[in-house]
Amino acid sequence: MLRLIAKAVAALVVSVGLFLAVAYAFDPSAMRQRLGLTPPLDVPYVATRTSMVEAMLEMAEVGEGNYVIDLGTGDGRILIAAAQDRGARGLGVDLDPALVAEATRTAARLGLSDRLTFAEQDLFDTPLAEADVVTMFLLPEVNLRLRPRLLAELRPGARVVSNRFDMGDWRPDETRRVAGYEAYAWIIPAKVGGDWVLAEGGASISLTLVQHYQDVRGTATLADGSSVPVTGVLEGEAMRLTVLFEDGARSFAGRVGEGRFVPDDAGEGWSATR
Q1: 92-95-101 Cα angle (round to 5)
Q2: Taking the CB of residue 51, how many other CB atoms lie within 10 A of it?
């Protein structure tokens, strides 16, 4: 009887061991959490496909010397591709120490350690202001929590790319379908909401603009006190405003910075100030 019990216990131990080994092989990150080896994660680790990595970097226009922050970096494959294929620098953060160690080893093996840093760090505690590009494969609710910080901390013109999940009512500037899933890209818009005075040839009109991410609407108050609608769109610091005058629409295209809106073509002879 004791021998049968011992055999049963041994068989159970072997079965449990095999189950754990198979589970670890399929989802090592989840198993490390279950075993208490890593802290609970806001986002489970799912590897990004190579085709999606390439599309995300292309959509973000990652180039030589760009600084990329990869939130929830996992094994670092997005950041490593950015450095190896496009000459970027960057920081990847993740709460799973085993994945951070793997990414660090891969970067070292490929000779990229001087350009890439991987840190065991909470993405919500990661400063973003230095990034030219932020990449992520998170979850919808995590994206929405990050959205205010992305808009507040990143400079106008910085790019954000997300695998699979959008940013709620923040309209993406580009969407692509890659291997059955969506990729979304946004360009951080300049802040233009408020009152402006647009002057041209000694005449001026008052503009009151309301901004919703990269989309702009408002009113233009003319010299006779009447008001007409204004619409516009931003792409980083570039803005195109259209004033719907009674005798026809007129567009003003230029760049925003330091409280001024100036034309792309200096010969146009108009400018706007806050």
Answers
A1: 65
A2: 12
Helix (H) or strand (E) holding 104: helix 97-109
Report the number of distinct structural domains present in the chain: 2
Non-local CB neighbours of 2 within 8 Å, separated by 6+ positions: none
Q: What is the pLDDT of residue 20?
A: 44
The pLDDT tens digits for 54-88 are 999 999 999 999 999 999 999 999 999 999 999 99
Which residues fall within 8 angstroms of residue 21, CB to CB, at 6 or more apart?
none
Phi-psi category of residue 58: left, alpha or beta, with phi > 0 → left and psi -120 to 50 → alpha: alpha
Give the domain range for residue 201. 194-273
Which residues, in sequence order, are CB contacts of 137 under 8 Å at separation 6+?
43, 46, 48, 72, 74, 78, 162, 163, 164
